[in-house]
Structure formats: structure tokens, C-alpha cells
């Protein structure tokens, strides 16, 4: 789907598939019996809170949008003073600093009131960092009421922050893997931008045509390095019929044949010269500058790509993630939930007020339009009286995410205290196979054998 510039785009969330016990959340069947344990704030009660978000680590649409949201909240809640902060850490990708930063703050007795953490961290957030069950803080009925309203959350999206029958995190922002492409470059290469590649074989063919006719790089898959994280890599493996973890969460499976084949596909793109050997930080601006034909990426980068296309006078388009042959794709979700980690009751209540605003109709309308993340209150997209609905109708970049959310697979969380080392060991093997020409089967198998010792005892 092609959009001439200027334009902006977003997406909307829809039904998720049933979650396994080892995944990012488990549906709750407990009755609404919990009662609020933290008192409501009085109108003149002054409270100071902190909000830590990895989105604040990057200038541009992320920081600007979050600052706008927090300014709106302050106006609506003049008694609550919010200090926003980004996670401390050395990584250029702020999300990679989020958990280590929070661990340090919790250990030092200085936890933020509200923390934005990824779904891949959910097990550790609950079992080790003792994030508060929102059902216990404000009451299960209040939590479920927040998921409702004029435009309720997608029915199963709201369970992504659930763990063992309680809601710990309110799902906030996420995307699915979207194939962005340079429609102008397609035309220059003799390709039809109205008919983007539907399979990885077709991606390779199109990438070769782009390289041959324009001299520019054909494609970049931002799912294959330790810095990129594993949410998108999990989508590649699942789309080839595999998984990185067994259904009961006890066994690693990222060296099984479907994963090996997915990595081999990416390795072949590099080996054939159509995918550049770039880091994530290098690849973003290269695509935005019009130097790469296709880019598999989260919609969180959409604002940057929109600006790059407008500045470079080229046409940006988007499609669903490619398939492996005739196998249906299994797009996973990126992103994060909002957790309350403070111990003070007044701060906990004020933190809940912030979470309610950041997941409101108003907030999602801003987030979707200005960043590209999914508005989890999906009814906004179909409500003719919603400003987001009219905007979505004019922006075709929204459609791939809308299509994929109907068959979404949850981002699986590795279990135990060593989940980060397990995830990093897997991704280091993937990166070595794709970009350093290592044998995928041998490299993934060796990595799996090494990190299997870090799994919790069965």
C-alpha cells in the first residue's frame, strides 16, 4: 500500500491467540473479588511520582510524543507531579537498558513509580522484582473497568500483562513486524510497488532486481541481532512452523529445524549480496535515507521512515511480513506494559492514575498518529466520530498491522533468573550465522546446548 507524502500512519490492535502458560501472559479466570488496598487521592493531596520509559531514550517522535502525553496528564491532574526519566545504561537501544536499570533502582530502594518494561521480561518482573498486582492495589473490578469504556481493549490484548491469574501490567504499546519498502525504488528496478513480495523467495528476487538496477541494498531484516531483541526473530521462527520454547516452557527449541531454516534464509540474503552487514543503529538511517529497498521492522520506526521519505522525496509503502512458501505467517508482538513498582500507597494510587491516562482513548489517538504504535483500544479505528478513525482512513500504512493482529502470536518470555543470558545466547548465535557466515545448524545447536544449563530445573 503506497502513500505519497506528506503522510503519517498508525495501526490498530485486534484479537490475540490463546496464550500458553510460559508466554507473555495467561488469561485470568478468577472472579472479581479483590478489593482496593490503596486509598484514593484527595483533590488537594500532592504526590510526586516518576515514570521510567525506554521510549524516552531516543529523540524525535518517541520523546516528543511522550512529553506531550505527560504534559496533558499534568494539566488533568495538577496534584500529581510526574518526573519522566529514561533507563540508565550504555546501549544505544534504550529498551536494552530497561531491565538492568530497573534492577539497579529496585536494589537501591529507588524504584520508579511506573516502569515501562517489555513483555519478554514479564516472568522476571513478577517473580524477582515483585511488581505489584494491580488487582491487589486498586481492585480487580477497577482494573477490568479500565480495559472497558467507550472503546474497550481488544478482548485478549488486555491479558498480555497477566500472570497466574492477576493483572500485573497494563499493555501499553506494541507492533507486529511490518515490511516497509521504498515504492520509488521498486519502480526504478522495474518492480510493481502495488504487488510487494509475499514470500521470502520473492523478497530475494525483488532485492536482486533492486541491487542490479539501482546499485542500492535490497533488504534488511531487523530481527537478527542481540540489539534487536528476540520478539521479531520469534515471528520468523513461528512463521516457519517452529518456536524458540516448548509449549510447557521447560525446553529450548531454537535449534530445531524451523529455526535453522529461518536463519539460513537470512544468511543467504547476506551471502547473495542483497542484505547489507549493518548494525541496527546503522540500518535505520540508511533505509530512511532511501538507500535500502525493503526493511522488516516494528511500526515504532514508522514516524522516522515517514520523515525520511518526505525529506528524500520518495514514496514509502508497507506490506505484511513475508511467508515461508505457503505457510501462514505468525506475527508476534513487540512492545511493553506499564507496571507499578513503587512501595508508597499514595504513589501507587497516583501511578495507577497515570497508567489509566496513558492507555486512554486520548493517549492512544496521539500515540498511533505520531509514533505508529498500535492503539489497543481498537474501536477508535472504526468509530466515525473518532479523530483517529478519519486519520487511519487516509493512511494506508496502517493496514498491514491491522491484518496481522488478527493472527498474532504472543512474544514468549524465557523463564527463570537467567532469561536474559538465554535470550542473548540465542541471538548471538543467530547474528553469527547470518552476518559472520557460521553454519546455522551447528551454531544454533551449540548455543542451545550451552544455555540449556541456565534454564530452571524441571
Written overview of the protein:
By secondary structure, the chain is an alpha/beta fold. It contains 18 helices and twelve strands. The strands form three sheets. A five-stranded mixed beta sheet has the order 1-11-8-10-9. The N terminus is likely disordered.
Gist of the model:
This protein has 458 residues and is of the alpha/beta class. The longest helix is centred in the C-terminal third of the chain and has 17 residues, at 419-435.
Total strands: the figure is: 12
Q: Any idea what the radius of gyration is?
A: 22 Å
Order of helices and strands: EEHEHEHHHEEEEHHEHHHEHEEHHHHHHH
Strand order of the largest sheet: 1-11-8-10-9
Overall spatial form: globular
Runs with pLDDT <50, length 5+? 1-34
Q: How far apart are the termini?
A: 48 Å
Q: Can you give the mean pLDDT? A: 89
**Percentage of residues in strands:** 5-15%
* Approximate helicity band: 40-55%
Summarize the biggest pleated sheet.
Answer: 5 strands, mixed
- The class by helix and strand makeup works out as alpha/beta
Number of helices, where a helix is a run of at least 4 consecutive DSSP H or I residues = 18
Task: Set out the fold topology.
Blueprint: E1 2-3, E2 47-52, H1 61-76, E3 80-85, H2 95-107, E4 114-118, H3 122-127, H4 134-138, H5 140-147, E5 162-163, E6 166-167, E7 169-173, E8 178-182, H6 183-188, H7 200-214, E9 217-221, H8 231-239, H9 257-271, H10 280-288, E10 292-297, H11 302-312, E11 316-320, E12 336-340, H12 345-358, H13 361-370, H14 379-382, H15 387-393, H16 399-405, H17 419-435, H18 440-451
Parallel strand pairs: 2-3, 2-4, 9-10
Antiparallel strand pairs: 1-11, 4-12, 5-6, 7-12, 8-10, 8-11
Helix pairs in contact: 1-13, 9-17, 10-11, 13-15, 17-18
Amino acid at each position: 500500500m503506497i502513500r505519497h507524502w506528506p503522510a503519517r500512519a498508525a495501526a490498530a490492535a485486534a484479537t490475540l491467540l490463546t496464550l500458553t502458560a510460559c508466554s507473555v501472559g495467561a488469561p485470568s479466570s478468577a472472579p472479581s473479588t479483590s478489593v482496593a488496598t490503596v486509598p484514593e487521592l484527595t483533590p488537594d493531596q500532592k504526590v510526586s511520582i516518576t515514570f521510567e520509559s525506554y521510549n524516552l531514550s531516543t529523540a524525535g517522535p518517541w520523546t516528543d510524543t511522550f512529553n506531550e502525553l505527560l504534559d496533558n496528564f499534568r494539566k488533568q491532574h495538577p496534584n500529581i507531579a510526574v518526573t519522566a526519566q529514561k533507563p540508565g545504561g550504555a546501549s544505544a537501544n534504550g529498551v536494552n537498558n530497561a531491565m538492568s536499570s530497573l534492577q539497579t533502582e529496585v536494589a537501591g530502594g529507588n524504584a520508579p513509580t511506573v516502569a515501562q518494561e517489555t513483555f519478554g521480561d514479564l516472568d522476571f518482573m513478577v517473580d524477582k522484582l515483585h511488581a505489584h498486582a494491580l488487582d491487589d492495589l486498586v481492585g480487580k473490578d477497577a482494573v477490568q473497568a479500565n480495559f472497558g469504556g467507550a472503546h474497550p481493549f481488544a478482548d485478549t490484548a488486555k491479558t498480555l500483562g497477566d500472570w497466574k491469574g492477576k493483572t500485573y501490567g497494563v499493555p501499553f504499546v506494541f507492533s507486529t513486524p511490518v515490511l516497509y519498502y521504498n515504492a520509488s525504488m521498486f519502480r526504478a528496478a522495474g518492480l510493481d510497488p502495488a504487488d510487494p513480495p509475499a514470500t521470502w523467495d520473492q523478497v530475494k528476487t525483488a532485492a536482486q532486481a533492486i541491487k542490479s538496477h539501482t546499485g542500492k541494498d535490497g533488504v534488511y531484516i531487523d530481527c537478527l541481532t542481540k540489539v534487536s531483541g528476540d520478539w521479531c526473530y520469534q515471528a520468523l521462527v513461528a512463521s516457519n512452523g517452529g518456536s524458540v520454547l516448548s509449549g510447557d516452557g521447560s525446553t529450548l527449541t531454537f535449534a530445531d529445524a524451523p529455526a535453522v531454516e529461518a536463519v539460513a534464509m537470512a544468511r543467504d540474503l547476506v551471502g547473495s549480496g542483497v542484505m547489507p552487514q549493518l548494525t541496527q543503529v546503522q540500518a535505520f538511517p540508511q533505509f530512511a535515507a532511501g538507500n535500502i529497498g525493503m526493511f522488516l521492522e516494528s511500526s515504532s520506526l514508522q514516524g522516522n521512515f515517514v520523515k525520511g521519505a518526505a525529506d528524500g522525496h520518495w514514496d514509502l509503502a508497507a506490506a505484511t511480513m513475508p511467508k515461508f512458501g505457503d505457510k501462514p505467517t505468525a506475527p508476534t508482538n513487540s512492545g511493553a506494559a506499564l507496571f507499578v513498582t513503587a512501595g508508597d500507597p499514595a504513589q501507587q494510587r497516583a501511578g495507577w492514575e497515570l497508567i489509566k491516562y496513558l492507555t486512554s482513548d486520548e493517549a492512544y489517538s496521539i500515540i498511533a498518529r505520531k509514533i505508529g504504535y498500535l492503539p489497543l483500544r481498537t474501536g477508535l479505528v472504526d468509530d466515525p466520530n473518532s479523530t483517529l478513525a478519519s486519520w487511519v482512513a487516509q493512511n494506508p500504512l496502517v493496514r498491514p498491522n491491522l491484518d496481522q493482529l488478527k493472527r498474532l502470536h504472543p512474544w514468549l518470555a524465557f523463564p527463570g533468573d537467567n532469561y536474559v543470558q538465554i535470550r542473548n545466547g540465542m541471538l548471538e548465535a543467530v547474528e553469527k550465522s547470518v552476518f559472520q557466515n557460521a553454519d546455522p545448524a551447528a551454531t544454533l545447536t551449540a548455543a542451545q546446548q550451552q544455555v540449556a544449563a541456565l534454564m530452571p530445573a524441571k
